[in-house]
Design a protein that fits this description.
Blueprint (H helix, E strand, L loop, with lengths): L7 E2 L10 H13 L9 H21 L6 E4 L2 H12 L7 E5 L4 H12 L3 E5 L9 H9 L5 E7 L11 H10 L3 E5 L11 H4 L3 E5 L10 E5 L25 H15 L2 H20 L4 E2 L10 E5 L5 H8 L3 E2 L1 E2 L1 E4 L2 E4 L1 H5 L4 H4 L2 E5 L6 H16 L5
Helix pairs in contact: 1-8, 2-8, 3-4, 5-6, 9-13
The chain binds pyridoxal-5'-phosphate.
Pyridoxal-5'-phosphate binds next to helix 3.
Length: 382
């Protein structure tokens, strides 16, 4: 429990709370930005100005130009728009992706494959990192000219950072575009679309202290993609439908906040995460992806022999975190991401993910450590 009697929150990779400043911006948009941004009167102009200000704020956080930002309903839609927008699936084409993607890209890549696109999935090393050499080999081996490479910037379960800049150069050399799912990275670490060399980048509002149901796709100027929906010409025709003005304004404000003190906050969280890992390590906690560069706020690991679900049950009233497995009909199914890293199924079902955020304090880390150690050593059935 924290000071207010609620379970300690260690699940910031799943979603984040909306801070007062973002809430105030959303409320202002609801009150003052209710006009339809596409209309021609002052109420419309007010709403339109709010959307355009947010576009500038989002663009600034990732080093893009405002006109390169397309607002969506979240990370899933952004990645669907990227994959299906580049590869409409009617003319074949080739996609190189990985075995550790979030379902937001995994599912559209499967749908594209079913529609005749050649898809190659590159596996990670045991540390959870996809090697550029392996992507290069996959690009060389494709029957059809590769059109798109798509991978995560930061893996959502392990937090492992992928060598995107290197892979971007390879994609370019093969004449392919690069899409990056940066939903877990934006707002946690500095992300610059030009330094990375990406063509398309997805981000999700609720991972960076904005409300749920809003996100964006960065589309590099000059890159042509097809919309998923047809309708009126909103968002340069790429995402028709009247804009979610309050959500977009919230996303903009959250991006503005993220930019302030990003490096210091990342360092602070990394310090806390490392302390937590040390604490848990004394009780045999094995960190997954320990040898790779990782997000500063994320730890994924296991207490050998203790299922993640068991810990989640023991601590459900005290500590909010995620296990690395889904429970299907009472049987723990190991995470595909962890098994792709070569972790045995019986170890993967022991995985837990703890993700920290702006609200995490030293005291929280201390208490979370105590709770976990107690739960690990509790007698079976306790
Ligand atoms: C890496 C990654 N991509 C995409 C998504 C989906 O984002 P949204 O929930 O906004 O659709 C998530 C959310 O869990 C994620 O972690």
């Amino acid at each position: 429990m924290n000071r207010t009697g609620h379970p300690l929150y260690f699940d910031y990779n799943a979603s984040t709370p909306v801070p007062p400043r973002v809430r105030a911006a959303v409320l202002r948009a609801l009150e003052e930005g209710f006009g339809n941004p596409s209309a021609a009167h002052p109420y419309a102009r007010r709403a339109r100005d709010m959307v355009e200000r947010a576009r500038i704020q989002v663009a600034r956080l990732i080093g893009a130009e405002p006109e390169e930002i397309v607002f969506t309903s979240g990370g899933t839609e952004a990645s669907n728009l990227a994959l299906r927008g580049v590869l409409p699936g009617t003319n074949g084409g080739g996609l190189v992706t990985t075995t550790i993607e979030h379902p937001a890209t995994q599912a559209p890549s499967r749908a594209l494959e079913a529609a005749g696109v050649q898809v190659t999935r590159v596996a990670p090393t045991p540390d959870g990192c996809v090697e550029a050499d392996h992507v290069s080999a996959a690009l060389d081996a494709m029957r059809t000219p590769p059109v798109l490479v798509s991978l995560l910037l930061a893996q959502n379960e392990t937090g492992v950072l992928q060598p995107v800049a290197e892979i971007a150069a390879l994609a370019r050399a093969h004449g392919a575009l690069l899409h990056v799912d940066a939903a877990q990275a934006v707002g946690k670490i500095p992300v610059d679309v030009n330094a990375l060399g990406v063509d398309l980048l997805s981000l999700a509002g609720h991972k960076l202290y904005a409300p749920k149901g809003v996100g964006a796709l960065y589309v590099r100027r000059g890159v042509t993609i097809q919309p998923l929906l047809v309708g009126a010409g909103h968002e340069r025709g790429l995402r028709p439908g009247t804009e979610n003005v309050p959500g977009i304004v919230g996303l903009g404000e959250a991006c503005g906040m993220a930019l302030e003190g990003l490096d210091e906050e990342a360092k602070r969280q990394q310090g806390l995460r490392d302390t937590l890992e040390q604490r848990l390590g004394a009780a045999g906690f094995v960190v997954h992806g320990a040898g790779a560069s990782r997000l500063p706020n994320t730890t994924n690991g296991r207490f050998p022999g203790v299922q993640g679900a068991t810990l989640a049950t023991r601590l459900c009233e005290e500590l909010a975190f995620t296990t690395g497995s889904a429970c299907h009909a009472g049987v723990a199914k190991p995470s595909d991401v962890l098994t792709a890293m070569g972790i045995a199924a019986e170890d993967a079902v022991c995985a837990i993910r703890l993700s920290l955020g702006r609200g995490t304090t030293e005291e929280d880390v201390e208490r979370a450590g105590e709770l976990l150690l107690r739960a690990v050593s509790a007698p079976r059935g306790g």
